[in-house]
Write a structure and sequence with these properties.
Layout lengths: L3 H4 L8 H16 L5 H6 L5 E8 L3 E2 L3 H11 L4 E4 L6 E2 L4 E8 H6 L1 H22 L8 E3 L9 H10 L13 E3 L1 H7 L2 H11 L6 E5 L2 H10 L4 E5 L3 H11 L4 E5 L7 H6 L4 E3 L2 H4 L6 E5 L2
Parallel strand pairs: 6-11, 7-8, 8-9, 9-10, 10-11
Antiparallel strand pairs: 1-5, 1-12, 2-4, 3-5
Amino acid sequence: MTSIVELLHPEAFLSPLAIDDAVRRALDEDLGRAGDITSIATIPATTTARAVMVARQAGVIAGLPLALATFKTLSPDIEVEAHCRDGAQVSAGSQLLTIAGPARAVLSGERTSLNFVGRLSGIATLTADYVRPTLGTKMRICCTRKTTPGLRALEKYAVRCGGGFNHRFGLDDAILIKDNHIAVAGSIRAVLERARAHTGHLVKIEIEVDTLEQLGEVLATGLADVVLLDNMDVATLTEAVTMAQGRVVLEASGGVTQSSIAEIAATGVDYISAGALTHSAANLNVALDIEA
């Protein structure tokens, strides 16, 4: 029988606790106070069923461990056979999972499992589209904190399934000084000095700049590890790389589209961060077909 570990992307971590929590919250939302009253009313308790989860369109798959956990939470007697694992590139019509067991549990878990796989596969597929133009360069595509509330760990995992990388997971794992922080603190030097005095040696400090003049101020302090170049055009990004001379890691962000990625990568920046990977990904069309 397929296990959750066998379905996870081999190079991306997703906590079993995050899977369990997300599945239980989703099932509670769907089953409510009385359960699946349609299946209870129409399907005898002893009836069994066999179903196949199918990709209706081509894409990169993510979320299969959550589908498995959904069905196993509803009934330990359900057996799931995997035909691929997260991170797989599939064509339209590809079978993803075969599910067999108590019919009520299969039917009750249908929409929740498809919601997880469709949403996360959509993110993985869009990420792969963003990553493709960067192949052969040093640049990495990263997601942001623009995620669905409560689903950040899952959506950032889906980005990894699509070949992207993760920016910070929250406000507590890295310092990112933005324009509003600078405005309150008074100046670039002041905000960086305070951040460096507060920060432990394992925490990175990143600061956002809008102009090359601001970049020059940051470089003069020698206190930042990473500089986020916000909404700069390709010519300005190229000049920023020349100015930095490898002294800091450079991240381009703001207004990034699939059509602009190749040009941005050619400037020599180290990272692109794009909120669109998570906030604008369309669901991949997946379905559950009952086998007669």
